UniProtKB/TrEMBL annotation:
<feature type="domain" description="SAM-dependent MTase RsmB/NOP-type">
    <location>
        <begin position="194"/>
        <end position="505"/>
    </location>
</feature>
<dbReference type="GO" id="GO:0008168">
    <property type="term" value="F:methyltransferase activity"/>
</dbReference>
<dbReference type="InterPro" id="IPR049560">
    <property type="entry name" value="MeTrfase_RsmB-F_NOP2_cat"/>
</dbReference>
<feature type="active site" description="Nucleophile">
    <location>
        <position position="439"/>
    </location>
</feature>
<keyword id="KW-0489">Methyltransferase</keyword>
<keyword id="KW-0949">S-adenosyl-L-methionine</keyword>
<feature type="binding site">
    <location>
        <position position="353"/>
    </location>
    <ligand>
        <name>S-adenosyl-L-methionine</name>
    </ligand>
</feature>
<dbReference type="InterPro" id="IPR042620">
    <property type="entry name" value="NSUN7"/>
</dbReference>
<keyword id="KW-0694">RNA-binding</keyword>
<dbReference type="InterPro" id="IPR029063">
    <property type="entry name" value="SAM-dependent_MTases_sf"/>
</dbReference>
<dbReference type="Pfam" id="PF01189">
    <property type="entry name" value="Methyltr_RsmB-F"/>
</dbReference>
<dbReference type="GO" id="GO:0003723">
    <property type="term" value="F:RNA binding"/>
</dbReference>
<dbReference type="Pfam" id="PF21148">
    <property type="entry name" value="NSUN5_fdxn-like"/>
</dbReference>
<dbReference type="GO" id="GO:0032259">
    <property type="term" value="P:methylation"/>
</dbReference>
<keyword id="KW-0808">Transferase</keyword>
<protein>
    <submittedName>
        <fullName>NOP2/Sun RNA methyltransferase family member 7</fullName>
    </submittedName>
</protein>
<comment type="similarity">
    <text>Belongs to the class I-like SAM-binding methyltransferase superfamily. RsmB/NOP family.</text>
</comment>
Length: 721
């Protein structure tokens, strides 16, 4: 036994060593490829665009501490990007220069490169970003392609930097010795270093555009491309992917396959959309609150992919997604073109900001849920460049992300704006829910904002107030549905996400309607095989007057009920438990509807038990049993209390033809009727009796037909009068 244990330990150690060797080999390969790309440098247009971005996000120092001055000629807005790759490279270069701004300025001063008489201050931003790239290339010359379009300013700055490369390298070495750092990465704060480590390992999340392709087709296409489906992120190895544990339409890919994934036809044709997971969580939270024909308001224009994802998950024919804040006509055309390529046909663009739209606006009267994604500090995001590009956020967020913290004054301003937008959303009386989502790690932007909005009572006293409700899609082992807020801390598998669902309380006096719950269940495919018909007005009134008792008979399709029990329990969370009609009971009643309809004719033919002959006078025992007056008497004397089974039977109209009533003729002189007494006997019970006491007996004799009646009988044209 000890030898076997040692063999197991030895084999596990060998496997661990192999895995470490493979991972080290991959890292070495990736670093070598990256270094080759970086050593080649960038195109001139990337440098000039990065300088424009840096000019707008750089850290400004007090006037008495400014040693390096930046001009104002380079505008930070509207950089001209050739393609998406050029845009990403420009932002990455600007963000890297921003993180090392103090170090780069010290190198310029220590090497006596600055001030430079031949280069104006307006080009200082270009000097800083090109200096960072030069030291990252180990002060090697940039390889310039003959086809590349040259920019005079870039070539001029590059020439002066390269002429000072020895002094610049010496100044960099002195700075590293001063900070006792092996590389410039160790000069950064620890929070920034951890953020960069998380960003390098963060998986890629992509949701399926079901308007263009089904999940099954996506899986088959990925299999043809060589991808293998695994259970979780921990099983990633090579070309693999897995399903997200929270969102059923989100796929997760390894971070190392980013370049290969983006070149796949699935991504270029918008069948798979790359986006941060936090936005998919917010969209699915809205989806869980929607009815079949509800409209949605997306309060911010920046998140285009979020609006598209919301459109994909909603009903394209009956629901609309309103996106606020599309002020520029160029932006509107760009977004419409994007949504057309993605085949999202139910998105409406509004020019006004969300806070400028009032509750009485006729365009949004059908809207029931608001998706609120306010601008936040974003310190929970590990890969800020991807977040800004995908969500079209302001590049000014990079200033705080480069420092690893947010100033208290700015945090207060952000929280005030978030509270203002959330309180404005609560003023819409017809709204039923609000989904509030941020990527911040600060409680001041998360729980504090939500609690202050709930305490404000801005919704008024005429409508039901809002209360916190857990997201209805919580189904994982780590997050409990009983949690009020949904929170994900930044880690190596996801960015930070804070999610709050504010649902309006139901009126206790309001009778719960099952229609919307059944519609949601039918949309999810949980009611297959059940015939859901529309109840008549008479049945609805009857249900309001009396409570429905539980059914005694177990329906045959109990397997259908077991599939929808979890769905109905989730739907009942925001609903008052004192409501009169239970959705589960209504589903059970509907499942028994077809069986009761088939048996309805048999139930109508049942005859109530006749009155005992001993309770009638002796002269009435021989009266025929088909008399209409006898039937009336039986119905009145055998009235029973309605049962729940009878209430649920859908009655069909039946035409009943009653036989004519033959009223005997009495002689005023006291003689008996001329009708033969062999078959008919009548008598008055009392002297002072009404017509109700004149009762025909339930005789068991055989009834003769009308042709056998004596001709001496008095016939009336209307015998029932």
């Amino acid at each position: 036994m000890p030898s076997s244990k040692s063999n197991l330990v030895l084999s596990s150690d060998i496997s661990n060593v192999r895995e470490m060797a493979i991972s080290n080999e991959r890292e070495t390969t990736e670093k070598s490829i990256t270094s080759l790309i970086e050593n080649n440098g960038y195109q001139d247009s990337v440098y000039i665009n990065a300088a424009k971005i840096f000019q707008g996000i750089r850290n400004e120092k007090p006037e008495d501490k400014i040693l390096v001055r930046y001009g104002n000629e380079l505008e930070p807005s509207l950089p001209d990007f050739k393609d998406e790759c050029s845009q990403r490279s420009s932002y990455e270069l600007a963000f890297s220069a921003l993180k090392y701004q103090d170090l780069l300025e010290n190198i310029l001063l220590d090497s006596c490169f600055y001030p430079c008489q031949s280069i104006p201050d307006e080009l200082t931003s270009l000097i800083v970003v090109m200096l960072y790239d030069l030291q990252d290339r180990k002060f090697q010359a940039r390889q310039i392609s003959d086809e590349e379009e040259s920019i005079p300013e870039v070539r001029e700055v590059e020439h002066y930097l390269y002429s000072f490369k020895t002094k610049l390298a010496a100044a960099l070495a002195r700075c590293r010795i001063k900070h006792d750092a092996l590389s410039i990465e160790y000069i950064l704060p620890e929070t920034i270093r951890k953020q960069e480590q998380r960003a390098s390992a963060l998986p890629l999340y992509a949701w399926i555009n079901t308007c263009k392709s089904s999940p099954e087709d996506i899986y088959r296409e990925l299999k043809r491309e060589g991808f293998t489906k695994v259970e979780s992120v921990s099983d990633f190895e090579g070309y693999t992917y897995c399903l997200d544990k929270h969102c059923s339409d989100v796929l997760v890919f390894p971070a190392s396959l980013k370049e290969e994934i983006l070149n796949l036809e699935l991504f270029t044709h918008y069948k798979l959309i790359l986006q941060d997971k936090s936005r998919s969580l917010a969209v699915h939270s809205v989806k869980a609150l929607l009815n079949m024909d509800d409209d949605i308001i997306v309060a911010h224009m920046g998140s285009r992919m979020t609006a598209a994802h919301m459109s994909v998950l909603s009903n394209q024919s009956t629901s609309k997604v309103f996106v606020c804040g599309v002020k520029s006509q160029a932006k509107e055309l760009e977004m419409k073109e994007l949504f057309t390529r993605m085949e999202c046909g139910n998105i409406e663009l509004l020019h006004e900001d969300f806070t400028e739209i009032g509750p009485a606006d006729q365009r949004i009267q059908k809207a029931k849920v608001i998706l609120l994604l306010p601008r936040c500090s974003g310190l929970g995001v590990s890969n800020p460049i991807e977040f800004i590009l995908n969500e079209h956020e302001d590049a000014g967020l990079l200033r705080d992300l480069s420092q690893g913290s947010v100033a208290e004054k700015k945090l207060h301003i952000l929280a005030e704006q978030q509270l203002l937008e959330l309180m404005h959303a609560m003023r819409f009386n017809k709204m039923q829910a609000i989904v509030y989502c941020t990527c911040s790690i600060y409680p001041e932007e998360n729980e504090a904002v939500v609690n202050k909005a709930l305490e404000s009572g801005v919704e008024g006293s005429k409508v039901q107030p809002y209360r916190l409700s857990p997201p209805l899609w919580c189904n994982s082992e780590t997050e409990s549905p009983s949690d009020i807020f949904f929170k994900m801390e930044p880690s190596e598998i996801s960015n930070c996400c804070f999610l709050a669902v504010l649902a309006r309380q139901r009126d206790p006096a309001e009778i719960m309607s099952v229609k919307d719950i059944l519609a949601r269940a039918a949309a999810k495919g949980l009611l297959e095989g059940l015939d859901i018909g529309k109840s008549s007005k008479r049945e609805e009134k009857r249900k309001k007057k009396s409570k429905v008792t539980p059914q005694r008979n177990v329906p045959k399709d109990t397997w259908v009920q077991s599939n929808i029990v979890e769905f109905l329990n989730r739907e009942m969370i925001p609903i008052d438990t004192n409501s009169e009609v239970s959705p589960i009971k209504a589903i059970s009643d509907i499942s028994q509807k077809n069986m009761k309809q088939t048996n309805s004719s048999i139930q109508l033919k049942k005859i109530t038990k006749p009155i005992s002959n001993s309770s009638l006078p002796g002269m009435l025992k021989n009266t025929p049993n088909l008399s209409s007056m006898s039937k009336v008497f039986e119905r009145r004397t055998h009235i029973r209390k309605p049962r729940a089974e009878d209430k649920m039977v859908v009655l069909k109209p039946v035409e009943i033809v009653l036989p004519p009533v033959m009223v005997p003729y009495f002689n005023p002189q006291g003689n008996k009727s001329q009708i033969s007494t062999q078959h008919y006997y009548y008598s008055w019970i009392e002297k002072k009796s009404s017509a109700r006491d004149f009762i025909p007996s339930l005789s068991k004799r055989v009834i003769k037909s009308k042709e056998t009646l004596p001709s001496t009988m008095v016939k009336h044209s209307r015998p029932w009068i």
